[in-house]
Specification:
single chain, alpha+beta, 4 helices, 96 residues
């Protein structure tokens, strides 16, 4: 299999000697259950459930699935890899 030669982030053509990097991105709904209060349990949720069903009926099955889980894979160049690495590392430090 030939090595990818085009960065999917910046569009730059990579040199033959340059190592392409693969980035995998997964986006998924939080597995944490919502907080439910006694007041929530006391309410009649029939109207909310009907509205939710109506919203879902307007979406295709692929879009419904995408709201729960999506995965992407990108090939990027060294420059973009370094940018993402530095940016994400800094974000982690800023948030801690």
């Amino acid at each position: 299999m030939d090595k990818p030669r085009l960065c999917e982030n910046c569009g730059r053509q990579m040199d033959d000697e340059e190592i392409p990097y693969w980035v995998r991105l997964e986006i998924f709904a939080s597995p944490e259950p919502p907080t439910i209060t006694p007041e929530d349990l006391a309410q009649d949720h029939t109207g909310k459930l009907r509205a939710l069903i109506e919203q879902m009926e307007k979406l295709g099955p692929d879009e419904c699935q995408a709201q729960v889980y999506e995965a992407y894979r990108f090939v990027i160049c060294t420059k973009c890899r370094n940018y993402f690495h530095d940016h994400l590392k800094q974000r982690r430090l800023d948030l801690s």
